Amino acid sequence: MSSRTVITGIGVVAPNGLGAEAFWKATQSGTSVLDRVTRPGCEHLPLRVAGEVRGFDPGTMVEDRFLVQTDRFTHQALAAADLALEDARLGRADYEGDPFSVGVVTAAGSGGGEFGQRELQHLWEQGPRFVGPYQSIAWFYAASTGQISIRRGLKGPCGVVASDEAGGLDAFAHAARGIRQGSRAMLAGATEAPLAPYSIVCQLEYDGLSTLDDPERAYRPFTAGACGYVPAEGGAMFVVEDEAAAVARGATVRAVLAGHGATFTGTRRHDPSGEGLAHAIRGALREAGCAPEEIDVVFADALGTPEADAAEAAALADALGAHGRRVPVTAPKTGTGRAYCAAPSLDTAAAVLALEHGIVPPTPNVYDVCHDLAVVTGAARPAELRTALVLSRGRMGSNSALVLRKGPAAGV
C-alpha cells in the first residue's frame, strides 16, 4: 500500500449486535453469545454450538426483489454495506456522476448454502421445473459483490476473494489496490451464513470443528481445554477510500490500512510450524513501515486447537521477537464464533473500534492461558493504542496479516 488508504465507514451484522455501536458495546464487555444451534433441520447434527445472528430481519433492510434472488449471506452483506455507506456518509449523490469510481470486493468461503439446499430439495422432491431461476447465481461466491454493485449502482472494479478464512483480510489488499489504481472508494468485507444443514454437514470433516454442547467450553483457544472452534454467521463491510479524497469530502477517517501480507503454505491444514503466518506478519509490517515493537494489540486468529494455537504463538514470537510475548493479544471471536471469511472482517471492525476507544476487548470464555502470550481475559483493558495487527489463517494453508493505524480523528 504505497499511498494512504483509509477506512471511513463500518457496517456490522454480527451474532452479538447489528451495527458497529451495538457490536462494540458487546465486544468490549466480553459478552459471549454462543449458544445451541437453533436453525431448522440442524437438530440431529453433531454440531451443537454456534454463533447465530438473531433478530436480523432482512426484509426491513433489503428490497423484496433482492431478497428472492439471494441467500442469507448476501442479505447480511447488503445490510452491512448499507450500514457502512451510511457511517461513511457516502451516498449515491456523491458518486452518481462517476459510478465507475466506486467498486466492491468481498470474500466468501462457501457461498449460499441455504439457498442452494432449498432449491436442490425442490429438484429432488418435485423435479427440475420447480427449481427457481436464481439457483444459478444465489449460491455463487461472488453473489454478494454482484448484488451490492447492482443495487447501489457501483460500476468500478468489482471482485471476490473465493478463499478460506484469510480471504477476509485479503479483500482489503484488493480494495487498496483499487484505490491506488484510481478508484475513489471501495466497499470491502465479508459475510458468511454457514449454519444451514447442508453447510454444516460439509463442515463436519473440518479439522478443529468443536462438537461440544457446552457454549462456555466449546471454543477456548490458547487454553489446556482447547478443543477447536465453533462456526458463526454474519460479518462486516467497510468503506475504504483514498485519504485525500476522503478528507476533501469531509469524511471521518476511522483508521488507516497501513500494511498487508499474505502467504500460502501449500498444505491441507494450518501450518503447524507457524512459519507461513510469521512471514505474512513480517510482510505486513514491512509494507506499513512498522517496527515489531510498535504493535500495540494483536487480534489473533485463535483457531482453538493445541497445535494451531502453539503455531500462532510461535509465529508471533518469530515475527515480533520478545515483543510477541508482551503485546496484548485478544480474540473477541470466542464470544461470537468463527465466521470463516467474515471472522477477520469482524476482527478488523473490533480493531478499528479498539483504536478509537483506547480499549483492548477481552477474550470471552478464556481464563487459563497455557501459551506464552499476553492474552487479555476477564475484562477489557484500557491502553494507549496506535497500531493494531489482525491475523487470519485458512484451513487450506493461507495466512494473512493486516496492520491498522489509528485514524487522525482518533487522535493521531
Automatic annotation (TrEMBL):
<dbReference type="InterPro" id="IPR016039">
    <property type="entry name" value="Thiolase-like"/>
</dbReference>
<keyword id="KW-0012">Acyltransferase</keyword>
<dbReference type="InterPro" id="IPR014031">
    <property type="entry name" value="Ketoacyl_synth_C"/>
</dbReference>
<dbReference type="GO" id="GO:0006633">
    <property type="term" value="P:fatty acid biosynthetic process"/>
</dbReference>
<keyword id="KW-0808">Transferase</keyword>
<dbReference type="InterPro" id="IPR020841">
    <property type="entry name" value="PKS_Beta-ketoAc_synthase_dom"/>
</dbReference>
<feature type="domain" description="Ketosynthase family 3 (KS3)">
    <location>
        <begin position="2"/>
        <end position="406"/>
    </location>
</feature>
<comment type="similarity">
    <text>Belongs to the thiolase-like superfamily. Beta-ketoacyl-ACP synthases family.</text>
</comment>
<dbReference type="InterPro" id="IPR000794">
    <property type="entry name" value="Beta-ketoacyl_synthase"/>
</dbReference>
<dbReference type="GO" id="GO:0004315">
    <property type="term" value="F:3-oxoacyl-[acyl-carrier-protein] synthase activity"/>
</dbReference>
<dbReference type="Pfam" id="PF02801">
    <property type="entry name" value="Ketoacyl-synt_C"/>
</dbReference>
<protein>
    <submittedName>
        <fullName>Ketosynthase chain-length factor</fullName>
    </submittedName>
</protein>
<dbReference type="Pfam" id="PF00109">
    <property type="entry name" value="ketoacyl-synt"/>
</dbReference>
<dbReference type="InterPro" id="IPR014030">
    <property type="entry name" value="Ketoacyl_synth_N"/>
</dbReference>
